[in-house]
Every structure is written in C-alpha cells, then in structure tokens.
Amino acid sequence: MSDNYFYAPRWQRTVFPIVGVLILLAGWYYLATYVVANPTLMPDPISVFKNVAAWGGQGWFETHFVATVIATLVGLVIGASLGFLFGIVVSEVETLYRVFHPIVQALQAMPVVAIAPLVIVWFGIGLASKIALVAIGTFFVMFIHTVAGMRAVSSELVDMAKAFGGGRWRIVFLVKIKSALDYVFSGLEVCAALSFILCVVGEFLAAKAGIGYYLRAASYDIDATAMFSAVFVLALLATLLAFSVRVLHHRLVFWKYSKQ
C-alpha cells in the first residue's frame, strides 16, 4: 500500500479497493465456474459466502474464530512488545548489541514452524502453545526492525539533542524511538501477517479449536467449500489487522505523512 494512500481523495480510497475486490471475485467466479467447473475442487464465491453466513447459527465463530483471534492477538502483543523493548536496550548497549544481535539474526533465519512441535511439548495442546508460537515468531521480527531503526537515527539529530542538554536515555525516548517508528511499524505490519500464519500452523499440529483445526478437519473430509470458507475468513482477518496497523502508523507518525 502506498504511503500516499491515506491522502488520496476520499472517493479514490473507497472506489479503488471496491473495484479491486470485485475484479478478484469475478476472476474467482469465472475460474470456479468455467475453468475448473467442479465444486468439489473449487467452489464459487457465492457458495463460500453462503457457507460463512451459515456458520453464524452453528457456533463456528464462538468456537473456532474466537480461538484463533485470541491466540493471534495475545501472542502478537507479547512477542512484539518484548521484541521492541529488548531491541531498544540492545541497540543502546554496545556490548549487548555485539553479543545478542548476531544470535538473534541467526535464530530469525530458522523457520519458526520447525520448533512448533517442541513448543507444543513445552506448553501442551491448546491456547498456550499457540500464543507461545506466535510470540516467538513475532519477537524476532520486531527485535530486528527495532534495532535497525534505532541505529539508523541521524547522528546530527542526536548531537543536536546532546547540545541542548539531553541525557542518554532522554535522547533514547524523545529522539531515537521517535525517529525509529517507521522501522517499528514496518516490523509490526510483518508481524501482523506472520502471527496468523504461526497461529494456524499451531492449530494444524495440535489444537482443540481454531480455524487451523477446522481447516485440517475439513481437509480430512475433502470439503473444499469449508476449506475455502476458512481461508477466506483468515485472509479477511489478516487484511484487517495489517490495515489497522498501517492506519495506526500514519496516525502516530503524523509529522512524516502530513501533507506538504
């Protein structure tokens, strides 16, 4: 999404996304109806929407939707917060930076899903293991982005703050963190998308409820409509969360994105 999106005319911010969604749905309908032409392999969007609407009276949202949303959001808050705080401290203490930054970079390269079975062994089957998996994955992303942002602050800006009598940690909170917010929010957008992926992976492996758990059960039944419906809900959730982070970004970092 372009940084200029929020400052485009209101009609463009409304019409263009709607047109894009309509084109996507039309392509999906054409592919499902005339190319695949087999609802057991690819249902059309109308069938999927009807199925999602029917879930409202079946307790699906109370059981699976809520389980995924809670685990994702709680894990995201824990992981992103710890990554942000740890990143600030490590970026400011040179010894800690030299010790921990290479280690965290190496660990970030490791697929988090590879340790998912171990996390399940540690935390058991259920909510705790999903929260832990999301928190671990988002921690590394937020840490790397925070450190990069803190160390990218202009040295001239820091020198100016020192000239006005700013102490070390006062400069950190009033200058460096403020200047690093672009990096922080970029990391948070990545975390927003990654958190749902990690939560669903955890639900695939071991869970008693959740959209990933439902997807696995639907795959056993070879129910394409149910699987497409679950994927549609997940895509909608991830899009809303990422868009919310972008809106918050532009509201809080208003001095950079205000009109010239």
Keywords for this entry:
0% strand; mainly alpha; 260 residues; MetI-like fold
Order of helices and strands: HHHHHHHHHHHH
> CATH class, anyone?
Mainly Alpha
End-to-end C-alpha gap: 20 Å
Give the CATH superfamily. Answer: MetI-like
Low-confidence stretches: none
CATH architecture term: Orthogonal Bundle
Radius of gyration: 22 Å
**Mean pLDDT figure:** 83
Strand content: under 5%
Going by helix content, strand content and strand pairing, the class is mainly alpha
Helix content: over 70%
How many beta-strand elements?
Answer: 0
CATH topology: MetI-like fold
State the helix count: 12
Can you give a write-up of this model?
With 260 residues, the chain is mainly α. It has one domain: Orthogonal Bundle (MetI-like fold). Helix content is 80%, strand content 0%. It has 12 helices and no strands. It has helices at residues 10-36, 45-55, 60-92, 94-108, 116-123, 127-151, 155-163, 168-179, 181-205, 211-220, 224-252, 254-257. The radius of gyration is 22 Å and the shape is globular. The model has no long low-confidence stretch (mean pLDDT 83).
Concise account of the structure shown:
This protein has 260 residues and is mostly helical. The chain has twelve helices and no strands.
